[in-house]
Structures are given as structure tokens and as C-alpha cells.
Amino acid sequence: MSSLEQTAAVLYGEQKYPQALDIYLSLYRKNPKTEKYSIYCGSCFDALGKPAQAIKFYQKASKLNPASVTTLLALSQLYYQKADYVNAVKFCERVLKLEPHNASAYLNLGNIAYCQGAFEEALSYYEKVYLQDEKNYLALINMANTCFDLKHFASAIEYAHKALKLYPSSFDAYLIRGNSYLELGKYTKAEEELLLACELNAQNPWVYNAFSRLYQKLERWDEALLAGWKALMCEPDTQDEQHINFGYLLYEYMAEKGGTLAAKYAHQWLEKFIGNKLVLYMANAILNNQQIECAEPRYVGKMFDVFAPDFDTTLAGLEYKAPQFLAETAQKVCSKPFWRPLHVLDLGCGTGLCAEKLKKTLGWCLINGVDLSAKMLELAASKKLYHHLQQADITTYLSQCAQAYPLVTACDVLTYFGNLKIIFNLVAKVLKPQGVFIFTVSENRIDDADYHLMPSGRFVHNISYVKKLLKYCGLSLLLCDRKALRTEGDKIVYGYVVAVRKEFTIAK
Fold first, then answer.
1. What is the rounded distance in angstroms from the CA atom of residue 59 to the CA atom of residue 64?
2. 54: burial class by Cβ within 10 Å (0-12, 13-18, 19+)?
3. Is the CA virtual torsion 458, 464, 467, 472 positive or negative?
4. Which DSSP letter does residue 415 get?
């Protein structure tokens, strides 16, 4: 090893990556066909958080030595970090052709499958590693975490226990055990495990999130709210999920105990996070501020990203019938020639519940879906119901849409808009002449206002306001049925299934 190379190695070991990189680049330029210099440059770029440059140098190294397992694993890991799962899998498979039992490759494949929501597949890869080496901590902790997501809580506890035998100070193992005991209803054990996790890492928001859910189950509401607040304080720059969790915690507290303490926290929330639009919206919903006209798009997107994995089963438990009502209405009011498909725009398409019912009812349809949530769109795509899917705010999408549709649907979407004027005008713009718009709104049974923002962050509407606005926007009423759309707790949520036809366009 040359003195320059030794110096670079020392600098790299001291985490002085820019200085180390300068030396390695000079060595690479002088020796472009020496594999190790490409690898060293790739490692430095990776350490500097520059994956594109790292990949470039690892690819150079791979061309010089296609059988280098080290290089192939590095490429797989970098593509995994970029969420380019196709290439990540490709390089793992190349490793396994060279070394059929390579544990790192199986771990990478497990992580890729896990990120894609294929939990059973991920578990099978982690098990391959565990069968080779029962003392592999990463395999055990990943198995525990995956079993938790599969709702195999007893197995999650067992694997986390084995991980703790190898690494007694594992925060992740204690957190998984705490959450698993919580799901099993063993609250004393859950609290014990979570306290141990908190001793190891008092700055992790997810341990406080777990405490808030635990104390809520135990009806220790003061402690639940305090834990939720602590979760917000842990990561001031990356806590959208914690904001959403805290907002729902306040909403659930109000439903159980009333508004005094919730209002106190909502004011405190607004003061602490001045300028945060997500907080502005959720806190004002708790405070019953009726000046808010629509939901914050970031709130809607993030909220449904969080709830996407359990969305369909949760709605089934709420006796959610809106998609079926909407499809039945479409069958009544839409004419569809049998020789060509009906083109449909599904606004706020979610996981495809509405599209599924429409296709069963109307037959041959080409449906385009739009939604804010990437996670919901992933699930919709997996059902193969849509001709095209796009992630966008629906007002932005409609204002830029060049295509005209004979049918537009919005199932349980307008509940995130108070003032419906902009939406109705934009829908009228994208409807073909005599085109039909079918949507649902929740009924305002609170007051006589046109719309009312609920503590849940959802709007309810006065049907007379809806009808008046539709007429103003050139949309004539075809049908308006009051229905029980779903349940919420022990209450029935009533609303309206509305169908309108585009008769004329008013220039606005």
C-alpha cells in the first residue's frame, strides 16, 4: 500500500471523507483499471450521501471484476436506498449466483420485499439467514418487526427476545415487544417493555407514540396526551406522522372527555409550530375554527399514507357503503354504448374501492384515478383496475386536465373541502357536454351553515348549499339520495349520493 493510500485510509477511518476522496480520485485517475480505487471512490461518495456518484464508481469496479461480491452488494444496497428495487434485486441475484447462501444478499432481498409491503416474502428471506446463523441479530430483529406487521404478535415477541439475548441493549427489540404486548392487550407487560426502550433511547418519537396508545387504552388520558406531545418534540423537522397521530389523539380525547384539555393542547400546538400548515389545519379543526375552507393537502396525503395498509379492512369494519351507492347511481343515470368503454375520472381514488364497484356494475370502463397518497395509489395499482393513475392534488389535476370525460366520480372526497365552488367549477370544465358527475357528501347535522369543519378534520355539508352551488356552476341535478354512508363508533354517518349533468358552462 502506497503512502498516499495509507493516508487516505486513515482519513476515511476518521470520517474525513472529502479529504479521503480527493486522494482516492487522484489514485483512480492514475490507475483507472485498478478495481480497488473505483471501490474506494464509491465508498467515499456513499459516505458523503452522493449515491449517484457512488453507483457510477461501483459500476466501474464491477466491469473490472464482475465476480466481486463486495461491489455487487454495494450496488444492491445503493439502489435499495434509492427505492430502485428492480436494480437492487438484480444485483442481489447476481451475488447469489456467485455465493448461493450469501446472508447479506438475503437480508437485502428481505428489506426490498418489506418496503414493497410483501411481508410474507420478506420473512422468508430473513428466515433463510436465520437458518444459516441463529445468532444473526439483523435477521432476528427484522423477523420480529415483520411478524409484528403480519400481526403475528407472539412470534414477534419471541424473535425480539432472541435478539435481546444477543444484544441486550436493543432499543428496537424492546419497542417491538412493547407494541406486540399492547396489541395483545397485555398492558402491564407492554408498559414494562416500553419503559426499558425509553431508558435506552429517550429521543425516539415512536416509543412515546406507543405510550400514548397504551395510556389511551387504559383511559389514562392526561398521560396519553403528554406522551403524544413528547413524540412531537423528538424530531422537530421530520414529524408529519407524529402530527397526524397527535391530531387524532386530540380528536379521540374530545369524543371521550370533551374539549377543554384538547383545546389547551391545540393552542400550545399552534404556538409551537407557527407556520406549519398541517398543524394549522388540524389544530383549528379541534378548535372548531369555521374560517378554514379546505383541508391542507399535505395532511390528506400523509394521513392516507399512514392508513393505507389497513384502509380496506378498516372501512369494511365501518360498514362503508358509499362506493356501492355511487356505482348503483351510475347504473341509473349513465348510458354506456356496449361497443366501446366508458371513460371515467375517479377523483380521490384511494385503493380503488369505487373503481371496483363501477366495473362490476357498468362493465367495460377505462378509469383514470387521481389521489394525493402515494401509498394508496400503490395499492390501487396492485388491483389492476385503472387505465392510468396519477399522484396529485385534485384541484391542481383538474385545472390542468386536457381530457374531457363522460363520467367523473368523487366518493367520500369532498369531505376534505368546505367551500365546494372551485371543485364544482373545475369538474364542470372536464365534463363532456351532458357528462355526469356523481359524488357523496356528509350531512351537516350540527348547524345551519353551508359547511362545518368537524374535529376529525372532515367537513360536513348542508345539502341546500350543495344544490344551490351546483346550479350556479351549470350542473343540473339528476338524483340526490340521503344514505347511511358508514358508521363512526356507535353512530351512523348520514350523507347524500348526488348525481348531476353538465348542461352548460359559465365563464368564471
1. 9
2. buried
3. negative
4. G
Contact 28, 41 (CB under 8 A): yes
Helix axes 137-149, 119-132, angle to 10 degrees: 150
Q: At 334, is the secondary structure helix, strand, or coil? A: coil
Distances (CA, A) of 32 to 25, 347, 467: 10, 54, 72
Longest CA span, the chain: 84
Beta strands (DSSP E) in 264-375 are: 342-347, 365-371
Q: What is the pLDDT of residues 239-283, one digit of tens each?
A: 788 898 999 999 999 888 887 899 999 999 999 998 888 899 999
Q: Above 80 in pLDDT, residue 336?
A: no
Residue 320: all three cell numbers together: 362503508
| 299: nearest Cα among 261, 244, 260, 339 | 244
CA distances from 381 to 309, 324, 376, 389, 405 (A): 14, 20, 9, 7, 21
Q: Can you read off the three cell numbers belonging to residue 354?
A: 369505487
- The residue type of 25 is L
DSSP β-bridge partners for residue 438: 409, 499
Phi and psi (nearest 5°) for 118? -90, 75
- Total residue count of the chain as it appears in this document: 508
User: Buried b vs exposed e over 204-236: b needs ≥16 C-beta within 10 Å?
Assistant: bbbbbbbbbbbbbeeeebeebbbbbbbbbebee
Q: What is the pLDDT of residue 506?
A: 46
289 is written with which cell numbers?
Answer: 375554527
Alpha-helical (H) ranges within 31-170 are 35-47, 51-64, 69-81, 85-98, 103-115, 119-132, 137-149, 153-166
**At a CB cut-off of 8 Å and minimum separation 6, what does 481 contact?**
325, 329, 496, 497
Beta bridge partners of 402: none
458-494 in b/e form (b: 16+ CB < 10 A) is bbbbbeebbbebbeebbbeebebeebebbeeeeeebe
Intra-chain end-to-end CA distance of the chain, in Å:
75
* Alpha-carbon gap, residue 355 to 383, rounded angstroms: 10
| Residue 351 or 307, more confident | 351
**Taking the CA atoms of the chain, what radius of gyration do you get in angstroms?**
27
pLDDT 10s digits, 403-419: 999 999 999 999 999 99
The pLDDT of residue 318: 86
**Would you give the DSSP letter of residue 481?**
E
Virtual torsion, Cα 249, 253, 254, 256, nearest 10 deg? 140
Distance CA 419, CA 412 (A): 15
> Has this prediction a pTM greater than 0.85?
no
